[in-house]
Design brief:
By secondary structure, this protein is of the alpha/beta class. Helix content is about 40%, strand content about 20%. The protein folds into three domains: about 5-10 and about 195-285, 4-hydroxy-3-methylbut-2-enyl diphosphate reductase, catalytic domain (Cobalt-precorrin-4 Transmethylase, domain 1, 3-Layer(aba) Sandwich); about 15-95, Rossmann fold, CATH 3.40.50; about 100-190, Cobalt-precorrin-4 Transmethylase, domain 1. Helix 5 (about 120-130) links the parallel strand 6 (about 110-115) and strand 7 (about 135-140).
Length: about 280
């Protein structure tokens, strides 16, 4: 007998729920909606929305004149809005309120700006755009050490740091500690989403309470990488999968408890689908 539990705290964050809800509302009218970049970093959910008529584009140039474009929760730099207006495009702005507040704080910051985040991530690109690219992005401790060594960070000047909203609070604390130890006159901004930060402690407890963890996330999900690594640090028997089709049942032994959880970009319906697949397998044994 296999016991299966789905983490009640996993699933879409508020910003993603808002963006998908507004997209579905628009699509229900029969119009064509163009999402500038993937509305969510989850292949299964993207497939579901594309069946409803959502079109993902990589550039505003791919949106026809007079079309309607959705700005996803990650946010965009000011240049995107300027270009959309110049081309006569209608905009449905679903930028997460937490991201918008972070963008405002970066625009108003004084001192050398450091952003703790993933290079090239959509949210980070939007943040960089607020200051015309005049900020340094640091992904991890290794990158920070290199920046300190090569002089990219001028310790003779005040330094102000912000975090991408979906990063690990522990990793952010470590980055800030390293900067202080290096002698930086540092101003730290607490910009990790409270909803995301709160998941870390709860998810660690969930991972520790099961024999096996099936962590469900899209391959391009930054938050999925952070949270699956967290689960694995607590429970080495953590397996990252994209859907129920990727379950390897040799991971699971009779009598074990299986916990199913996921990223802020993982839909609840997919978590339940994975859990049901494991239950069906266990019942058939």
């Amino acid at each position: 007998m296999v016991k299966v539990e789905t983490d009640p705290g996993s699933g879409f964050c508020g910003g993603v729920i808002r963006a998908i809800t507004r997209a579905e509302e628009y699509l229900s009218t029969g119009g064509t909606l163009y999402s500038l970049g993937a509305i969510v970093h989850n292949e299964a959910e993207l497939s579901r929305l594309h069946e409803k008529g959502l079109v993902t584009v990589n550039s505003l140039q791919d949106v026809p004149e007079g079309g309607t474009v959705l700005i996803r929760a990650h946010g965009e730099p000011p240049s995107t809005y300027t270009e959309a207006a110049a081309r006569g495009l209608s905009v449905i702005d679903c930028s997460c309120p937490v991201v918008l507040k972070l963008q405002e704080r970066i625009r108003n910051a004084t001192g050398q700006i450091i952003i703790f985040g993933r290079v090239g991530h959509a949210e980070v690109l939007g943040l960089m755009g607020q200051v015309g690219g005049n900020a340094l992005v640091v992904e991890n401790e290794k990158m920070l050490r290199e920046a300190l060594k090569n002089g990219s960070i001028d310790l003779s000047k005040p330094v102000v740091i912000f975090s991408q909203t979906t990063k690990s609070p522990t990793e952010y604390d470590n980055i800030c500690r390293m900067l202080r130890e290096a002698g930086a006159r540092l101003t730290v901004n607490n910009t990790i989403c409270a909803q995301v930060a709160g998941r870390h402690e709860r998810l660690a407890q969930f991972a520790a309470s099961h024999d096996i963890i099936l962590f469900v996330a899209g391959r391009s999900s930054s938050n999925g990488k952070v949270l699956s690594d967290l689960c694995r640090s607590v429970n080495p028997a953590t397996y990252l999968i994209g859907s129920e089709k990727e379950i390897d049942f040799s991971w699971i032994k009779d009598g074990q408890s299986v916990g199913v959880c996921g990223a802020t970009s993982t839909p609840k319906w997919l978590l339940e689908k994975v859990a049901e697949e494991v239950r069906s397998w266990g019942n058939a044994r």
